[in-house]
Design brief:
Length: about 150
């Protein structure tokens, strides 16, 4: 009888360990994380997006777009220092990432560094000689700030 109890306890321990291990051993599909994060962003659920993008960037550390969205989310939550670090990561991976340049420029405007925002605008002018959405958006963002200063 004692042996049966011990075997029962061992079985229970093995079973609970395998459930616990399975919980933490799940392989999460990065594309599912990305989709989930973009849905949170569309709904302006920045805290939720931040958690998902944290997981995404760990699973895809060389994805400049992931770092850009992660930085964007941090900027929306006013975590400017972290946002700046992550925009730099994105631009190190892809120096011509127009979205990262636009959003980083917006960060510079928000942190009152219009000269750096203008530098990003100039880079976008080089990348988009006949214009592009990112160039036009950053131009508007800078112009709105300049109008406030007058």
């Amino acid at each position: 009888m004692k042996t049966l109890k011990i075997l029962g306890l061992l079985s229970l321990l093995v079973f609970s360990f395998s459930i616990h291990a399975a919980k933490y051993d799940k392989k999460v599909d990065p594309s599912e994380l990305y989709d989930k994060a973009t849905n949170h962003l569309k709904n302006e659920e920045y805290r939720k997006a931040l958690r998902v993008l944290g997981k995404y960037t760990k699973s895809k550390p060389k994805d400049a777009d992931g770092w850009t969205l992660y930085a964007f989310t941090q900027r929306k939550l006013k975590n400017y220092k972290k946002a700046e670090v992550n925009y730099e990561k994105a631009l190190k991976l892809d120096p011509e990432n127009k979205i990262a340049l636009e959003y980083q420029g917006e960060l510079f405007v928000e942190t009152e560094r219009l000269g750096l925002a203008q530098t990003n605008l100039n880079k976008l002018k080089e990348l988009c000689p006949t214009s592009c959405d990112e160039l036009e958006q950053l131009k508007k963002y800078i112009n709105q700030e300049e109008k406030k200063s007058l």
